[in-house]
Structure formats: structure tokens, C-alpha cells
Amino acid sequence: MSELAMQHAAAFEGELPPMPIEPAWILEGDPVAKGTVIVQSADKLVSTGLWSCTTGKFRWTFSGDEFVYLLAGEVTVTDSTGGKITLRPGDLAHFPRGAETVWHVTQEVRKVFTLRTPEPLE
What we know:
This protein has 122 residues and is an all-beta fold. The protein has a single domain, classed as Jelly Rolls, CATH 2.60.120. The chain has no helices and 8 strands. Strands 1, 2, 3, 4, 5, 6, 7 and 8 form an 8-stranded antiparallel beta sheet that branches. It starts with 25 loop residues before the first strand and ends in a 6-residue tail after the last strand.
């Protein structure tokens, strides 16, 4: 019988490291993003972490399927068809790989993300 290989990560405390937004993607303000991957699958195709961002507006194209759970703040996300969702603490959302969006962060946000990528995330 094979053993189940489980991973565990303690609650993250402290300052998140910088995870800059591409400057050309910024549309308004000076949003500062920070984040870190906390745990990954053995093949590094699935990653879970924390991300935060100060107020501002920017484009974002998803490199993989991403599921998010908002812990704090408020953000309105608009997709390429003009569809909009506003996320607040406790809200969950899924963004498919390749989705082209605009994020308008009106209150500094903090989220948990799970990202499934086609290639290992290093």
C-alpha cells in the first residue's frame, strides 16, 4: 500500500514579499502587489498562496486557472466581454486560464489563491 504524501503549511505571518504588477498593465494609481506561494503540489502545477494589493486599476491576464477567496478589501474585476464582479471578504471566484481582466482595487485587498498552471510554477 502506498503512503499518502501530504503537505502542511503553518499560517503565514509577517510581511508578504513584493510581487510587482507589470508597469505597462497599470491604468490608474500606483497599486503595490505583494504575495507568496505557501504550498505546491509535487509537480508544481498547483500552487496555493497569499496575495495583497493596494488601491489602483490594472490589467491582468491569467496564466493558469485561478481560484480566489477574498480575506479583506474590495475589488471589481471586469472581463474582456464587459462582465463585472465585485469581490468582498468571504467571496470566492474562479478565473480561467487566459482570461483578460481589469482589476479596480477600491480598498486594499488580501486573498488566498489556488493556481493551476500548464507548466510547473517556479
